[in-house]
Amino acid sequence: MKAKVILGIIAMLCASHVGQAQNGWQQKVTSELPLLGHRNWIVIVDSAYPLQSSPGVETIDTGADHLAVLDYVLDAIKKSEHVRPLVHTDRELEFVPDKDAPGVAKYRQDLKTRLSGFTADSLPHQALIDQLGETGKSFHILVLKTRMTIPYTSVFLQLDCKYWSAESEARLREAIKSAESSGTKP
Q1: Any idea where the domains of the chain sit in the sequence?
Q2: What does the pLDDT read at residue 36?
Q3: What CATH architecture applies to the domain 24-182?
Q4: What are phi and psi of 92, to 5 degrees?
Q5: What does the pLDDT look like over 92-101, one tens digit per residue?
Q6: Kind and range of the H or E run holding 175
Q7: Are strands 119-123 and 41-45 parallel, antiparallel or unpaired?
Q8: Of 46, 119, 135, 162, which has the fewest CB atoms closer than 10 Å, so is most exposed?
Q9: What is the phi/psi pair of residue 75, to 5°?
Q10: What is the pLDDT of residues 109-157, one digit of tens each?
Q11: String of b and e for 34-45 (b: at least 16 CB within 10 Å)?
């Protein structure tokens, strides 16, 4: 009887440890998101995405489903008060045929559904990687590597200020410029 109880406790501890390991990336997103702001990025990538060496680029192997990671991150960002994502996807994804990458058509549809309502564009993959490398010299980038085995499925979430829009910034810059040129103060 005691042996069964001890084995049961060991099994529960092992299961608990495995659960913690699987959720490490979620804990990372949850703990880092309050520290991240505009100019930071969170990127959800496929399993062949390269390990970048810029000092600010941190890569975590989630071991998780690509769309599940995207859902978790988008939900966390939606719930935040301070950031919103500017979404970039690989331009090449639009041209990858299902015969060369089975499942890509379904992925494109699933991605489109998930990104509905967000500001999104598509840019060449290498341009996005280069931008991350450059940005990573000064700002933190969190790369979440998934089990995805379809090429060009990376989703780049460039964080921007949720409570200050590009239009507000443009008006502010114009007011400053106008005040400086006229010599007036607000």
Answers
A1: 24-182
A2: 98
A3: 3-Layer(aba) Sandwich (3.40)
A4: -65, -25
A5: 999 999 999 9
A6: helix 166-182
A7: unpaired
A8: 119
A9: -65, -45
A10: 999 999 999 989 999 999 999 999 999 999 999 999 999 999 999 999 9
A11: eebebebbbbbb
Q: Which two tokens stand for residue 164?
A: 């200050």
Asked if 49 and 2 count as a contact pair (C-beta separation under 8 A), the reply is no
Q: How far apart are CA 34 and CA 134, in angstroms?
A: 23
- Token pair, residue 85, equals 């994502």
Contacts of 65 (CB under 8 A, 6+ apart): 146, 147, 148
Rounded Cα–Cα distance for residues 82 and 39 (Å): 13
Q: Following DSSP, what letter does each residue of 20-36 receive, concatenated?
A: HHHTHHHHHHHHHGGG-
Only one residue has tokens 């495995």, namely 18
| Alpha-carbon Rg for the chain in angstroms | 21
The answer to whether the beta carbons of residues 54 and 137 sit under 8 Å apart is yes
Predicted confidence band at 13 (pLDDT cuts at 50, 70, 90)? very low
State the Cα–Cα distance between residues 146 and 119, nearest whole angstrom: 23
pLDDT single digits (tens) 15-62: 444 444 448 999 999 999 999 999 999 999 999 999 999 999 999 999
